[in-house]
Structure formats: C-alpha cells, structure tokens
Amino acid sequence: MKIAVIGVGRWGVHLLRNFLAHPQVDVVAVIDPQAQRLAAVKQQFNLDANILLSTQWSDLQQVPGLTALAIATPAITHYTLIKDSLKSGYHVLAEKPLTLDPIECLELCQLAEKQHLILMVDHTYLFHPAVAQGQTVVKAGKLGDLRYGYATRTHLGPVRQDVDALWDLAIHDIAIFNNWLGQIPVKVQATGTVWLQRNGESHHSLSGLADLVWVTMTYPDGFQVYIHLCWGNPDKQRRLAVVGSRGCLIFDEMSTASPLTLLHGEFERQGNQFLPVNQQREVVEFPAGEPLQRVCDRFIVNIIQNTTPDISSGWVGTELVEILSALTASLKQGGQTIDVNINAW
C-alpha cells in the first residue's frame, strides 16, 4: 500500500518511522514545508532515492497509485488538507485534533462516508495497552458504583503558539474518560489563567492563550470528571483515575513500574462510623506494545478490510472537538456551564 506522510515535525517523524517499518506499507512520499526537515529524515531513516521529498503539497499529484496519507501538520491546516485529500480519493490518518471546528469535522466525516474512504484520527492513548485494559476493568464492575474521575496533565513546555493548554493537553484525558465510561459528557465547565502569551496587563485575563486550565465535565448519569492542565509546571504529571464505591483505578504514565493500578477499598458502616475495609493494591498487567504502532496498523487494516475505525474514527474525533469547543466557550465566559450538543448532529 502506497502512503505519503505529510509533516515530519515532532510527531510526524514517529508516524514516518512506523509506516517505514510496516510490512504492508510502501512510503512513497514525504511532504514538509521545511526543506531542512526533509533532509534530516532522509539521513535519519536512510530513505530510498525513489521516495519523493518535497516542500509542495501539490507534488503528490505526480505520485502514481497513492492510497493513503498520514497528516501531522498544525491543527489549523487540517481542514483544508484533509478535505483536499478525501476529494482526491485518499484514505486519511490525521493527527489530533481532527480540526479546530466541530462543523468542519462533521463535514469531513460526511465527505469520507460519501467517498467511501477511511478517516481516522490519531488519538494515540486510545490504543495504549494500559488504556484498553483499564476499560476492561471499569466495564467488569470492579470499581463498584462509579463516583467521579480526576486527571492531571502538567509539564514545563513545550508552549504552543497556535492553541492554548486546553486544546494542547485536554483531548488525551477526555478521550480516555469517554472510552472507559462509554459515555460522552453533556455539560462542561472551564476556568483558566494566562501568564505567558496574554493580550493585556492582567495575569488573570483570558485575552490570550491559557497556560493553566481547570476542567469539569458532567456525564449523562451524573458522573463528574475534574482535569488539571498546565504547560508551565516543572512537576510533570500524567495521571488519571476513576473512583468507585469499591476502589480506584489509576493510570499513571510516569510510573514505569506499575502504570495501571487498582486500589481496592470501601467503607463498612458500624453504627455512626464508616470504616475502611478490603484495602489492597493490585498492579493490573497489560500486554506490551507501542500505541502509535497500533494506530498505524489499525489504519492499514481498516483500509484493507474496508471497515470503519471502531476506536478512533473521524466521528470520535468530531465528538472530542465538540467537547473542546464547549470548554472553550466556558473558558471565555468565565466558567459558565455549557451544554455539549453532540445529539444536534
């Protein structure tokens, strides 16, 4: 299968690496507007001279038999690139987010269906073996009655100049919570702070790109999620948890020894007292595997079998963009609760 990779920046280079290693893929073109990046990947991967390296998107027209594209360009460029790709008859794997506008996402999903093409979004965490195993644990009812969830995603840079910390970071945790719960939030709320790229003098003005964002999401059954996002915190955390009446499931990506842990524990009532009982720590095992390799392989399988992606389709990407758009509206309105209108589609 002949594939072109569009964009070989920080993430695109990993897509290129995986497709070069895939036994059913022939990478025939690499497109990037920066010639130095093309030169770097040519040397890094010792690319064959037959592979087209170009700074011009239009040069793909001269590549015969091209089947699919992997697009890893800035989100602001996604809509035009993906739309042109689908109209040209190419299957598309796009870096997240699908676009920055849910209406554009919806249009692309409908176009892909009309063209009978695969549109898949690289929500890599949905292919992480720990996340897949975590979904199994939650659905098996091991946590008892689900009560609430929380997540923290912080680090010191990189600081984006095209989107704020909400759009840069939240999509990962929202995708995992939706996957584990099997639900989409119906109401969201967000507050934030701008320090680095603000338009104005006030540190707490949201006229700029928020460096710190606090998110609250409410699901149809009343389950609530709280997320802390910041790209200005040297305390790097990648931690997500779902708490139930009988335990807590924790996905801590920074823990190399036990990234997925089930903490058993519940209350037993004795008179007016609530005493903790059945406390136990269980390391949840999961198979090894690079999530991005699984993304790339699933994309190829979907094309070969002509099946819609069941985990990270364009429709899933659209849901996530709709949620982020509602959170942005709340952020701009000082934390007002905003309805998520997924059903309006």
Automatic annotation (TrEMBL):
Q: Which residues form the GFO/IDH/MocA-like oxidoreductase domain?
A: 135-249
InterPro entries named among the record's database cross-references: Gfo/Idh/MocA-like_OxRdtase_N, Gfo/Idh/MocA_Oxidoreductases, GFO_IDH_MocA-like_dom, NAD(P)-bd_dom_sf
Classify the source by domain of life. Bacteria
Q: Which SUPFAM superfamilies match?
A: Glyceraldehyde-3-phosphate dehydrogenase-like, C-terminal domain, NAD(P)-binding Rossmann-fold domains
Q: Where is the Gfo/Idh/MocA-like oxidoreductase N-terminal domain?
A: 1-123
PANTHER family, alphabetically?
BILIVERDIN REDUCTASE A, GFO_IDH_MOCA-LIKE OXIDOREDUCTASE N-TERMINAL DOMAIN-CONTAINING PROTEIN
Protein name per its UniProtKB record: Gfo/Idh/MocA family oxidoreductase
Its ancestry begins with: Bacteria, Bacillati, Cyanobacteriota, Cyanophyceae, Nostocales
